[in-house]
Every structure is written in C-alpha cells, then in structure tokens.
Amino acid sequence: MPQWLYLLAGGSLILAAACAVIIAADLVLFPSHRQRMWIMNLVWPITALYAGPIGLWAYVRVGRRSSRGSARRGAQRDSATPSRSKPFWQSVAIGSTHCGGGCTLGDLTAEWWLSNSSVTLFGKAIFAAWALDFLLAYLFGIVFQYYSIKPMRGLTPLRGLAAAVKADTLSLVAWQMQLAMIAGFCTSYPVNWWLIRRGIKEKM
After folding, report:
1. Alpha-carbon dihedral of residues 70, 76, 82, 85, nearest 10 degrees?
2. pLDDT digits over 129-144, tens only?
3. 202 neighbors 152 (Cβ within 8 angstroms)
4. CB neighbours of 63 closer than 8 A, spacing ≥ 6?
5. pTM, whole model, 2 decimals?
C-alpha cells in the first residue's frame, strides 16, 4: 500500500477523533446542550468517529436542536418542541446514527479483541472478524434502541427489549451490508425511513 494512503488514513482518524472530542466537550461543558434523550449524548461523539467533520456539522446543526436547552426555549415560546418541528428527513438521519453508533462500538471492540487473539472462523481470521463485528454491533445497537424506545413509549423492560430488537434488526443489517461507515449511513437511511414511517422505530 502506498505511503500516502497510510498518511491519509492516519490524518482522517486524527481529524475524526478531534471532532468526537469537540462534541463530547460541548456536551460536558455546556449542560444546556445535552440531549433530551440521554443515549444521544453517547451517539453524537461516536458518530464523529466515523463521519468526522460531517458528524460535527450534523451535531451543531441538528443535534443541538434536540438539546434540553432548546426544548426549554421552545416551551417558553409556547411553540412545538424541536422533535416535533424537525423535518422528517432529519429524524431519519438521527435514527440512522443509532446504527452507526452500535456498528462503530462493535467494530472497535471486536477488532481490539481480535488483534490480541488468534481466533478464526472456517480457518480464516477475516471471517471471525466479520462475525464478531456483526454480533457486537447488533448488541450495542439493541442497547441504543432500548434506551430510546423504552422511555419514549413507556414500556416495561421486556417489551422495551422486544421493541428494540424489532427496530434495530433490519436497520443494523442494512448498515453492516457495506464497505465503509459513511456508505453504511447511506444504505441504512432508506431502511430507517421505512421503519420510522411504519412506527417500528421512534422518530428522534
């Protein structure tokens, strides 16, 4: 592989990490910027890990409109809350970031673990990596969905888990059927559009 490609990849990772740190710092230092749905305080910095400056831009333009401070200001103006006034395409995009958050954490965890082991599947290390990436991404994705759907619908833990599995399965499979995280957002977006329209997944 050419040296410039290594340098480009390294620079991209550093830039993405910097964007994630900026979002995390914004959420920590400015309590009014924290999200009404607490799980999004994790999802937004994770989004920047794969989307870099695009993730940072999306957080500033869209994420802050779902903050607690924004909700309070909307209530004081006696207007609709941000989640209701947000365009549908933005709700779908935010719903898709849940998949990205689960996939990113799953990939990072799996690859870190596999780099310190000699596990194979059908004699191939890459097959083991794909299987573990998918499994962990799926589990993380269900967790993210659970902490979104359960409080929004007021469900019991068991019903919340069932709803999270139902909402995340198609969405995450669509995300994982790709070669890069940004491409995953694109493949997952139409699936999330359908899931939200059908009421299977909550509008963020």
Report:
1. -150
2. 889 988 999 999 899 8
3. yes
4. 23, 35, 40, 44, 94
5. 0.78
